[in-house]
Write a structure and sequence with these properties.
single chain; mainly alpha; Arc Repressor Mutant, subunit A; 10 helices; HTH_TetR; transcription cis-regulatory region binding; transcription
């Protein structure tokens, strides 16, 4: 076996271990509740050491909200990758439509048991609020860089607050409908109407802002 093949196998093994830990954690969280489940419980179910769990997931919340990094980066990454002639709001509108059509879990499609588990945990509710704030901050940083705003310019932060507020409200509505047991197709159809209305308002306010040259 070559060195490259050995490295590839080790990387694959790490991915499999990480996924196994995540899967067992999710099952236990849903069965027993997030706050009642310990790292020791998860390690035992996954048949690994507690240190192995914390090496892959430094915080217990990371085990439940394992899309956190993608969630925080999502809005900023979409704006940074927009095409010439496209505004920040235009790029985000299209990205939201696509995520809704594909039932993207980062958007909030998680299934009823998981959504109920998250809502029942004050720890996870607080962590979600923190992730929304971090996502808005990341967006503000990108908007400032893209528009060449001065350090004290509040416009990027104000724009990010408006955009982030829309995404937060749509996420919460999607989660509410999920907890109520609505099927994903019905949720997508209902949220689609709200999405178009919300982005129409954003476009009126920010449609000419941060248009890529």
């Amino acid at each position: 076996m070559s060195t490259r093949e050995a490295v590839g196998l080790r990387a694959q093994k790490k991915l499999e271990t990480r996924q196994a830990i995540s899967d067992h954690a999710t099952r236990l969280f849903i069965e027993n509740g997030f706050d009642a489940t310990t790292i020791a419980d998860i390690a035992g179910a996954a048949r690994v050491a507690k240190m192995t769990v914390t090496n892959y997931f430094p915080r217990k919340e990371d085990l439940a909200l394992d899309h956190a990094d993608a969630f925080v980066a999502s809005l900023a990454a979409t704006v940074a990758a927009r095409s010439p002639g496209v505004s920040a709001v235009g790029a985000l509108h299209e990205a939201f439509r696509e995520a809704l059509a594909t039932r993207n879990p980062v958007l909030g499609f998680s299934g009823e048991p998981f959504a109920r588990m998250v809502a029942a945990s004050p720890t996870l509710v607080a962590r979600l609020r923190e992730l929304h704030d971090k996502r808005e901050e990341a967006l503000a940083d990108v908007l400032a860089a893209e528009t060449g705003a001065d350090a004290g310019d509040l416009v990027p932060k104000l724009a990010a607050a408006q955009i982030g507020g829309v995404h937060r409200a749509l996420f919460q509505e999607l989660q509410r409908r999920t907890r109520d047991g609505e099927p994903d197709d019905a949720i997508a159809a209902a949220v689609r109407d709200s999405t178009e209305a919300a982005f129409a308002q954003l476009t009126r306010a920010l449609g000419d802002y941060a248009v890529r040259p």
